[in-house]
Each structure stands twice: as C-alpha cells, then as structure tokens.
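queue> holo job accepted (zinc ion)
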Amino acid sequence: MNIEKVFVEKGISLTSQRRLIAETLLNSSKHLGAEELFYLVHKKNPRIGLATVYRTLQIMRENGIIEKRDFGDGCSRYEDRKDMHHDHLICMKCGNVIEFDEPTIENLQMKVAEKKRFKVVTHRLELFGYCNKCSK
Amino acid sequence: MNIEKVFVEKGISLTSQRRLIAETLLNSSKHLGAEELFYLVHKKNPRIGLATVYRTLQIMRENGIIEKRDFGDGCSRYEDRKDMHHDHLICMKCGNVIEFDEPTIENLQMKVAEKKRFKVVTHRLELFGYCNKCSK
DNA sequence: TATAAGAATGATACTCATTCTCAATATATT
DNA sequence: AATATATTGAGAATGAGTATCATTCTTATA
Ligand SMILES: [Zn+2]
Ligand SMILES: [Zn+2]
Ligand SMILES: [Zn+2]
Ligand SMILES: [Zn+2]
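queue> job finished
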C-alpha cells in the first residue's frame, strides 16, 4: 500500500510523524495496540508523542484505512483494512492471531438476523484457544 | 435459580450484600453493567459499596455462575450463565440485546479451527446493527 | 519575502471503568 | 469470651484513551 497516495486521496495531510506511524503499523503483520505501536515508532523517532499516535490512528480509522479491534486484552488493536472482511482466531498463550474468512458462516449470520428482524451493520467473530504450537 | 443453594454448592459464603447483588443481577433479564447493577442494588441498600459489587461479580464469574461480556460500549456486562451457549445481536441505537444460538455456525467454527490446527476454548459472535423497532 | 491564519504536535491534565489498600466489621473457631 | 479469619466500604491507585493548550510547523495572502 502506498501511504502517500492513500493519504492524498483521502485529503489527509501527511506529516513526517503520520508517515512514520502509518508505515510502522502497515508494515507490521501483527495486530498492534497503540502503546506497542508507540514503542516501535519511538525507537525510530523519540520525539513523537503518544497523543499523536492515538490521533493518527483515529484519523486513519475515520478514513477507512485501518480497522480497530478489541480482543478483550485491555487495549484496542489496529490493522490494515484489507479488501476482504475477515474474522480471528486468537491464541490465549502466545497471543498470535490467525485470520480467516468463512462465507457460509457469514451467510448464516444474515439468516439469523433476518429471522429476528434485525438489520446487521457489522459483526465480530473471535475464536479463543491455543494455536498449533501452544497446544502441544 | 436458587441463589443460596448455588452459593453453598460452590462453597461461597452468602452475605446479605452478596445475596442482594446476586438476586438483582439474576432476576434482571438484561445484560447489566457493574455501575447499572450498583445503581439497582443501591436503591435497595444504600450501604453497599461499588467495590463489593465488583468483588461479588468476580466471585460469581470465577465460580461459573455468571458470564462477563464485552459489547464494546466501554463497560463489561454480566449475565446469568445459562445452560446453553448463546451469541448476541446488539442494537446500536437502543442497546437492546437479542440472544440466539445457531448450531450450524458453531459447527462451522470448529471446522475452520481444525483447518488451522487451532484448539478452540471459547468464542464470541456479536452482530451489531438495528433491531426491528429502531430500523424503522 | 513578510506575515497572518490555520493545522499539527507533544507534554500533561483529565476521564472513567476497574482494581487495590486498609481500617473497620462481621463471622467462625477454639 | 477471646482469637483468628473473612468481608466490607471508602477512597486511593491504575491504566487506556481523550482533551487541553502553548508551541511549532504549514499554508495562504499581502
Ligand atoms: Zn500460541
Ligand atoms: Zn485481522
Ligand atoms: Zn433498537
Ligand atoms: Zn446473553
């Protein structure tokens, strides 16, 4: 993903701080929390403040560049908004997150909602347990 | 549910405070948050402190009497742990919560996890949107 | 270029749900 | 009763996230 292009398209001014924050998040394969991201960013530029990290995350979220997740471990996590929706398997030991997409589940969700006359806007499905490594 | 019996079975001493807190929560059909529950309890016995509400909730959760939920509205919510697992439809306007259980979805979840060699311990599925009333 | 207006930043104060601390009470045991 | 143990309530502490505000860029205009 070309950060400059995306920011320009959305009409967000791209400061050096925002560039570094965005680059660090989008180049990571993990679902980073704000503090974690701040730590990584801080190593590269110790002048950047935590507030700027939070602000940049909010702007990127408002503009549909990233998504906010809550895996119930006390802090929100952020990730690149991929083209395809996906859900998560979360390892309770090592914290590793595996992504998946199961269209049949998605369809069944819609049917359940219809039955209850409920209009679904969004959803989240998270399976907690142990990954292959950790369950040995 | 007989509160006295349940507490005795689990070996939890049942003080007057705990009885009131447990009764209030279990007699409610809603998914109450701690503050909300504290408010209800406080009306009946203003001497009970918020810390005791939190402590009692924790004890009941540790003993499998209730379950903690996080619907992403800033506070945890608690509900009677029913015999059957269930998931939730949550209205983003009125906050109403509808429960459902769809065994086919549950089965598919297991299959997805197997494919990823992941051992599922628990999961949560929440559909956010608008209930029948609010979507008009 | 100079300058004024506007946006972004960083330090810090603040909020708010939840947990911790500790002295005071209540309960159980000898 | 006397002692040990458990529970309580008030308030302090915690920690993620937000708001404030003076300072530092940018941009636009004279
Ligand atoms: Zn693992
Ligand atoms: Zn993801
Ligand atoms: Zn509604
Ligand atoms: Zn429920």
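queue> Residues 13, 15, 33-35, 50-51, 54-55, 58, 74-76 of chain B lie near DNA strand C (CB under 10 Å from a C1').
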